[in-house]
Amino acid sequence: QQGAIRPASERGSQEVAITVPEGKLAAASLYWYERDPELFQAELEAMNHFFPLFRPDRLPDGRMSWLGSLASGVPGSNRIWHLQVVYDHDHPHNDSYGGSIGVFPIEPDLRVLERQLGESIPHTLRHGDGGELSICTVEEKSFKAGADHASTAASSLAWAAKWIAAFELWMLGEISTAQFAGHRI
Question: DSSP 3-state assignment of 142?
């Protein structure tokens, strides 16, 4: 009652106490993949089906991610894209544009490419103080939010593959900046 936490041995028998059953935590897990094992299993199955060369990983802060590589198949480009797909701690949500999954190129580094180009790269999202860039993985008119659906790693990677092909066509001069920036490809 005075705000002090005391073990049961130090409390009087008439004193009111809040108890947590032994072996139980008072709060749910921070990690979505522990809170919702069915969703986690569905994510594993979708990724193994559509992107079998991507492997699950965890960041030091416990966020679930996938690591793997894609090639665009665009004639004239032989670039391999090494990607990390990162879930927010509170996946799934569509609280912000882009949802709860980010696709981050490890190599090539989009910040380096941006400096070399001297201009912003269309359809990228900037994160944190370091300005890390992720690939925009949904067209604005296709972005839907709801309690019963959200992005998956597989759908985010499919959008990223489209973005990579468009980016490489743009770099090769096959499409204009207006076409790339306007989703008219």
Answer: helix
